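Sat 14:20. Reprocessing the chain from the morning session after the first attempt stalled halfway. Input below, unchanged.
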Amino acid sequence: MLHGAGGSAAVGVLLVGAIAGRTQGVLALVLFAAATAVSMALVSAAFGWALTRGQAGRRLEICVPVFAVAGVAFGCWYAAAALRALPGL
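Finished this time. Tokens:
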């Protein structure tokens, strides 16, 4: 859900690029990055807290190994595809 809103980062970078002063632009970019990190951490923590309560927590305990195996399988597939794309390596 948060990554779907990440497209707005391009607009933020364009706005920061339009700032006349270099120091002001860097400060604005640092503020934007910090606010993004804090907001993502807070929303992730809230979702984590909600998922560990009640029946959702018990169901999640069953799903975690499945998600872990799927994540590792995807990572292996992605790495293999990347290595085939670069035959010189």
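Residues 56-89 form one domain.
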